[in-house]
Design goal:
This protein is of the alpha/beta class. Helix content is 37%, strand content 19%. It has 2 domains: 233 residues, Rossmann fold; 106 residues, Cobalt-precorrin-4 Transmethylase, domain 1. The strands form 3 sheets. Strands 6-7-8-3-9-10 form a 6-stranded mixed sheet, with helices on both faces. It has a 4-stranded antiparallel sheet with strand order 2-1-4-5, covered by helices on one side. The protein binds adenosine-5'-diphosphate and magnesium ion (MG).
């Protein structure tokens, strides 16, 4: 029996060694709560990839166990196939994952192997390629693609499995800033639709802004499990020992405390929150964040006139790529929009209905952490007549 309280994945007393004198993982006991965004943080060689390979059964613990949905993972072929349709792992290096000659063959490989029916596979490939923005490259040979495109192909392959848990090993490594934000945005979107998302990284800024929770691995041991702000705002030397600096937003928060006596808590999570915590006494009137839904349910697109605008989510991104939307912010638009609105400018965010809740959550957090209230206005795209 499972319920929403059962962790989607857990490990108990997990040990694993590649055969050297030191184990790669020592006594790892952790839970992955379902429906969350979790970042695994740790320097190179700390054991993140080795742990991820346990989550979909590629590695088997020497001692201890892995549980999926409350049940002990079994290692016969049938159980492994089941596990791998539920838990999709995207490798750090796309070339470890891409085997097929063309993009569509590669994306279809997983579902085909899992015995998904042919008609359904076509649908899934369409959907996955569209999510990662590769619909146009469908028939291209995988060998002709750039590194970033190959990363998208391997992600599309994982998405085509429609996994309950998406595990991405250093997904942002080697990507330019726009692609990093697109990837995190897509992860938010999948997460809002119910997917649990695990990401490994050594990028503290990304981890701090994006994660619901962090798990920190150092020297093959789990050294922290909990909220990102609790891990980063610490007095001991662990961060230094791990070769990491605290996120800039938290350093700014610390300086505000030391120089102005501003209370440390609540901790700001984003630059917008930190900026407004610093300057809140100026009390400008906040602008509005206008949410315009552009997914299937939405109708005519009303072009933003003089207001600042941005796209958030795959549906809006497609419209921008097709030239049907012209916006200021092509990425990181929700955070930028909150920042603009908090500074007194109205901002139009073209987005999907399933991302509106996240926009509301972030606006609430801005109010709680920085004391600025940004009013949110839902504008449904099904109004008659196009603005101009
Ligand atoms: P991370 O992903 O955090 O960089 P890894 O899980 O790749 O760390 O590595 C953990 C430890 O296991 C390191 O000491 C690494 O050298 C070792 N290791 C990783 N893969 C192998 C392998 N295929 N064979 C032997 N040792 C390995
Ligand atoms: Mg690794």
């Amino acid at each position: 029996m499972t319920d929403s309280q059962t962790p989607i994945i857990s490990t108990q007393g997990l040990w694993f060694s590649y055969g050297g004198d030191k184990p790669a993982l020592s006594d790892i006991t952790l839970d992955i709560p379902r429906g969350k965004k979790i970042v695994f943080l740790g320097p190179n060689g700390s054991g993140k990839s080795t742990l991820f390979l346990h989550f979909n059964g590629v590695h088997r613990p020497d001692m201890g166990e892995v549980l999926f949905d409350g049940k002990e993972v079994k290692y016969d072929a049938k159980s492994l196939a089941e596990l791998r349709s539920a838990v999709s792992l995207v490798f750090q290096n796309p070339d470890d994952q891409i085997f097929s000659a063309t993009v569509e063959e590669d994306v279809a490989f997983g579902p085909l192997n899992a015995g998904v029916e042919r008609g359904e596979i076509g649908k899934r490939v369409d959907e996955a390629l569209s999510l990662v923005g590769l619909s146009e490259q469908r028939e291209r040979p995988t060998q002709q693609l750039s590194f970033g495109q190959r990363k998208r192909v391997s992600l599309a392959g994982a998405l085509a499995m429609r996994p309950k848990v998406l595990v991405m090993d250093e997904p942002t490594a080697g990507l330019d800033p726009q692609m990093v934000h697109e990837l995190l945005e897509l992860s938010d979107e999948l997460n809002q639709a119910g997917t649990t998302v695990l990401v490994s990284t050594h990028d503290v800024e990304t981890a701090y802004e994006w994660a619901d929770e962090v798990r920190v691995i150092h020297g093959g041991k789990l050294v922290f499990s909990g909220a990102p702000e609790e891990f980063f705002d610490r007095e001991d030397r662990l961060l230094h020992e791990m070769g990491m600096a605290p996120p800039m937003v938290l350093s700014l928060n610390r300086s505000l405390h030391d120089l102005n006596g501003t209370p440390l808590k609540p901790y700001p999570r984003t630059l917008a929150e930190a900026a407004h915590k610093a300057f809140r006494q100026r009390k400008e009137r906040a602008g509005k964040l206008l949410l315009r839904c552009v997914d299937e349910k939405g109708g005519a697109i009303q072009p933003a006139s003089h207001e600042r605008s941005g796209i958030y989510g795959a549906a809006a991104r497609r419209l921008a790529q097709d030239g049907r939307l012209d916006v200021h912010y092509q990425f990181h638009a929700l955070e930028s929009g909150l920042m603009e609105a908090a500074s007194g400018r109205d901002f139009v965010l073209y987005t999907d209905s399933n991302l509106c809740r996240l926009a509301e959550e972030k606006a609430k957090r801005l109010e709680k952490n920085a004391g600025v209230k940004v009013p949110i206005v839902h504008e449904h795209g099904d109004k008659k007549g196009e603005g101009g």
